[in-house]
Amino acid sequence: MACQKLGEDQLLKRVERTKKTKGMNMKLLTTHRYPESVSNRFSDLEQEINRFFSNPFTLLDGAAIRSKWNWSPSLDVVENKDELKVSAELPGMSKDDVNVTFEDGVLELSGERKSEHEENKDNVHFSERSYGTFHRRINLPQGVDPSKAKASYKDGVLTVTLPKVEEQKPRKIEVNVK
Amino acid sequence: MSATKEIKNTGDSVVSAPEHYRSFRADLLRNGDGYKLVGELPGVTRESLKVTIDEDVLTVEGSTSGYSDELSVVRKELPRGHYLRQFRLSDSIDTQSVRARLENGILVLDLPKKEMFRPMSIKIED
């Protein structure tokens, strides 16, 4: 059965018209396949939603507004008594393309991944990797010393290691009672 | 006609995969001479990476190292564990000449086409 190309407003009009006439027709019309223009819009929306949820940016990261940067790398934060380690997945980057900065107790990773595809030469069958600028901010807990931080890049994982500062020993304050 | 179709990991995979296997992101590019599959496998070591071709199925698997027990996790987003993904290769690919290299967590697979599938221009006769 050929699918008629109806505009959305036309479809609504048809529904209204049949409502007035027979209840039976109304049922037939609503189970009819949506015209191509409407179903395309639904699938576009679905794709957009999937893309939105597959991009990991967290609530912790209030500033990771998706419109400002193209993507956010996933990261792990682990610690032991001596240090805190932040590992970010950044495969295929070179050291020049990544910036690691600290400010006001916030660790910031930013940079850009340039596309290796040459527009004219390569025909892209599918592309799942993220390209463009990326940005990620992590609130650091108290007790880490950013001045002694070290960053290393191995197997496509950037690891920032922050040593913890010596905990202040609890001081006993003498109370003088006179 | 698409050159490589993906086999779902759990459904009709040639290798039975345990549940904790994860897929990885990949780009598939094509030029006249063949295809290039670029996969993101951050944290996967060269030793654990296995690329195999069985008839027309290409399998890529690798493992990342976990964290030692002494470390406690503050926040965890990275899919530690095992990556597994399979692709069905089209007949135009010369499976004998497939090359793989791993650098900085990126796996690049060169999948050249067989000679007869490469583009050729036909000379117009007088």
Explain how this protein is built:
In chain A, the strands form two sheets. Chain A has a four-stranded antiparallel β-sheet with strand order 1-2-8-7, with no helix packed on it. In chain A, strands 3-4-6 form a three-stranded antiparallel β-sheet, with no helix packed on it. Chain A contains three helices and eight strands, in the order αααββββββββ. Helices cover 22% and strands 29% of the residues of chain A. The termini of chain A are far apart. By secondary structure, chain B is mostly beta strands. Chain B has strands at residues 5-7, 21-22, 26-31, 34-40, 50-54, 57-63, 72-75, 82-88, 99-103, 106-112. In chain B, strands 1, 2, 5, 6 and 8 form a five-stranded mixed β-sheet that branches. In chain B, strands 3-4-10-9 form a four-stranded antiparallel β-sheet, with no helix packed on it. The radius of gyration of chain B is 18 Å and the shape is elongated. Residues 8-17 of chain B have low confidence and may be disordered. Chains A and B meet through β1, β2 and β5 of A and β3, β4 and β7 of B.
Summarize the structure.
Chain A has helices at residues 8-20, 23-30, 36-54; strands at residues 75-79, 83-89, 98-103, 106-113, 123-127, 132-139, 150-154, 157-163.
